[in-house]
Amino acid sequence: MAAYLNKHGYVGVGIVEEPPVRVRDFRWKGKRLRECRLRQPAICENSDDADDSQYLVTVAWRKSVDAESAKWKPKAGLFATRLVRASLANQTKTLKLLESEFGVRFRDLIKE
């Protein structure tokens, strides 16, 4: 997966390790998210409703950077979306940028 931070660029490349889990059931360092100090505590709203709850995945980050070091090239025809989930399958320019900037090969990551 590739993580895009709006108005900055791509900030990480990783592998999804587990299927999606409802936010109420997700654990971080053994704790439920409601027990953690979150920057966005509203993520736990509607967690008892399977249709309206947020769902989270565990990601093994291969490479990541902070917002100030996000990877982006203006006017290069790169793909960016506000959608939570989107495919990069046909986004050759974006895939090349991510592989170059993060020093990864998606084909190798897919095999893991």
Could you name the key traits of this structure?
alpha+beta, two-stranded antiparallel ribbon, 7 strands, about 110 residues, 2 domains, about 15% helix, single chain, three-stranded antiparallel sheet, globular
Q: Describe the oligomeric state of these chains in a short phrase.
A: single chain
Strand and helix order: EEEEEEEHH
Proportion of beta-strand residues: 15-25%
Supply the number of helical segments. Answer: 2
Total domain count = 2
Shape: globular
Spatial sequence of strands, sheet with the most strands: 1-2-7
Largest sheet: 3 strands, antiparallel
Number-wise, the strands total: 7
Give the C-alpha Rg.
Answer: 16 Å
- Structural class category: alpha+beta
Mean pLDDT: 92
Residue windows where pLDDT falls under 50 for at least 5 positions:
none
**Level of helix content?**
10-25%
Could you give the topology of this structure?
Elements: E1 2-5, E2 9-16, E3 21-22, E4 27-28, E5 31-32, E6 55-56, E7 59-64, H1 92-102, H2 106-111
Structure description:
The chain is an alpha+beta fold. The chain has two domains: 64 residues, no CATH class; 37 residues, no CATH class. It contains two helices and seven strands; from the N terminus they run βββββββαα. The strands form three sheets. The protein has a three-stranded antiparallel beta sheet with strand order 1-2-7, with no helix packed on it. A hairpin with a 2-residue loop joins strand 4 and strand 5. The chain is globular.
